[in-house]
Amino acid sequence: MKKIILIAAAYLTSVAHADSAVLTNFLANAKTIKANFSQTIVTGKKSRTTQGTMEISRPNKFRWEYTQDQQLIVSDAQQIYLYDKPLQQVTIRQLGKSIDKSPAAVLAGANDLQSAYKVSDIATKTAGLNWVRIDPKIKNDNNGFQVVLMGFDKQGKLSQMQFTDSFGNKTSISFSNLQTGVAIPASDYTFTPPAGVDVLQE
Predict the structure, then answer these.
(1) What mean pLDDT is reported for the chain?
(2) Which residues on adjacent β-strands are paired with residue 39?
(3) Does residue 101 have a pLDDT over 60?
(4) What ranges do the domains of the chain cover?
């Protein structure tokens, strides 16, 4: 999904125990999520970090805004709009083709997580976080991602997500000011392409 949840995995060291129940508990209480994020993408020896904001109303409504890159990704639960302001281009995709088995489904999806992913504990602790590993059950039907890692703080709040794609690229998102159960205006999940931009339908 273009840059929707691109995240660079840092290799984990030290030993502790993570409880995958923390993921179940978090999602049960996170019908809405709002946060700032910092995203780092590592490709070979190159890395790039960007910042932005995200909003999610489960199921399947989300808004990711990349401040520096001037890119916006909005889902109204039917379609996903990817707006690249510098390129003056909007790409429109049907939701099901983009999210069903992608990492975005972990946070925003309507489906039972266990139906598409194998969830397991990681006996590792980094930066004081408990980590849960999520592997797609069907390796060739995962929108290009090999593994998803989610790190939770002592209060059970999501702090980091890490992904490795099928090309070995690693991306990582750190969340700050994360809130759950907050009111989010419905208008945040609507998008009308600005006049004059190129619109591509996929």
Answers:
(1) 80
(2) 50, 173
(3) no
(4) 21-201
